[in-house]
Automatic annotation (TrEMBL):
Transmembrane regions listed in the UniProt entry: 15-41, 53-74
Name under which the protein is recorded: Alpha/beta hydrolase
BD-FAE-like domain sequence ranges: 129-324
GO molecular function: hydrolase activity
Keywords: Hydrolase, Membrane, Transmembrane, Transmembrane helix
The keyword Cell inner membrane is assigned to this record: no
Cited Gene3D superfamilies: alpha/beta hydrolase
InterPro entries per the UniProt record, alphabetical: AB_hydrolase_fold, BD-FAE-like_dom, GDXG_lipolytic_enzyme
Length: 369
């Protein structure tokens, strides 16, 4: 069942991703501004003085501001010792077709699908099977989205040598994260049960989630036996060796006052930010907060968070990183000072390049044979 997004959600999402593209490709914006200055000069020669003056002012401001995200990206890359590529900046993500699309579960009669991608035979990581696997979980606030949104990451991971399973899950469920997490666990169990069929090492499976999908991925990885987060299908094991989450809300109870009005309906009408947050049925957002499930047995965790995120407060990643530190869980937090929510929508941008480099190293280390 596809849920209907909250009123005003789509225009806001369009503006949000437009901001991502403008910030991620500010260098291109500057080049277009220079072109605009040339056109303004032609307009002035044609007698359109007022129009050309406005165009010149806008062009000069754009040219002046466009290097700022570029410079910040270089600074972050230098601090993280990550090489950046100008050719990659202008590149588009790979969109290879999935090997197969299958139904992995039917909770409450709803058919849930996943796409499977395998490394190309000529890939640099094409070694003997079985291979490590990554299960990807898309974002969308729990009310919208589909597995197709993960295609850039899924295709890239397959090229890196992983068998990738991009999953759909139930949308519009309450409380946010409960049924989604149940479906994610079901998908992980399905992958383990079908490991031989797809050449997967069942002991080397990782989860990768973005936004709301990151919340569910973290909850599924930090499984502590809570029956309210049980798998939505009959599977034996749902454990993973590593988990990665981008711009994920790790403390659900602290979001309502911070998020803009157009986003709040996705949190559910039953949530009262000023209400009781003890572990009971009246406080559902406590048990769907990853920070509430951290313990020393949790798998290594990779977090990526933008400092200019307009949906998930940057402090959310810090909260989880601190909890992981306290419990002695290996983790990596990549801070991107100028990145916005959904920064990886600009696939060639510096922030996405930094995260790809760091994620590659993280997965290679944690899923080593």
């Amino acid at each position: 069942m596809l849920a209907t997004p909250a009123v005003g959600l789509w225009p806001s999402l369009v503006l949000m991703y437009l901001a991502v593209l403008v910030g991620g490709y500010s260098l291109l914006l500057g080049l277009f501004a220079v072109l605009g200055l040339g056109l303004a000069a032609l307009a002035r020669r044609s007698g359109l003085r007022r129009t050309s003056l406005v165009a010149v002012v806008l062009g000069v401001v754009t040219v002046a501001l466009s290097p700022v995200p570029v410079a910040q990206g270089w600074r972050t890359a230098s601090q993280e010792d990550v090489p950046l590529s100008l050719s990659d900046y202008f590149s588009l993500p790979s969109l290879g077709s999935p090997l197969e699309t299958v139904t992995y579960a039917r909770p409450e009669g709803e058919e849930l699908m996943l796409d499977i991608r395998r490394p190309p035979p000529e890939g640099r990581e094409a070694g003997p099977e079985p291979r490590p696997a990554v299960v990807t979980v898309h974002g969308g606030g729990g009310v919208t989205g589909s597995r197709t949104e993960d295609v850039p990451w899924s295709a890239w991971l397959a090229e890196e040598g992983y068998v990738v399973f991009s999953i759909d899950y139930r949308l519009g469920q309450r409380p946010l994260g409960q049924e989604v997490t149940a479906d994610v666990k079901c998908a992980v169990g399905w992958v383990e049960q079908n490991a031989d069929r797809y050449g997967v090492d069942p002991d080397r499976i990782a989860l990768l989630g973005r936004s709301a999908g990151g919340v569910a991925a973290l909850l599924a990885a930090y499984d502590d036996g809570d029956p309210r987060l049980a798998p939505s299908c009959d599977v034996r094991d749902t454990g993973v060796e590593a988990v990665a989450a981008f711009y994920a809300a790790t403390d659900q109870g602290g979001l309502d006052e911070w998020r803009p009005p157009w986003w709040r309906p996705s949190l559910g009408d039953e949530y009262d930010p000023a209400g009781d947050r003890t572990e009971n049925e009246a406080g559902p957002f406590l048990f769907t907060s990853p920070t509430s499930h951290v313990d020393p047995a949790d798998p290594p965790t990779f977090l990526a968070q933008g400092g200019a995120d307009q949906v998930t407060p940057p402090e959310q990643a810090e909260l989880l990183a601190n909890r992981l530190e306290d419990e002695g869980v290996p983790h990596r937090l990549v801070r991107l000072p100028e990145a916005r929510h959904g920064f990886d929508g600009a696939w060639g941008g510096w922030d996405t390049q930094i995260v790809r480099h760091e994620l590659r190293e993280f997965l290679e280390n944690e899923l080593a044979d």
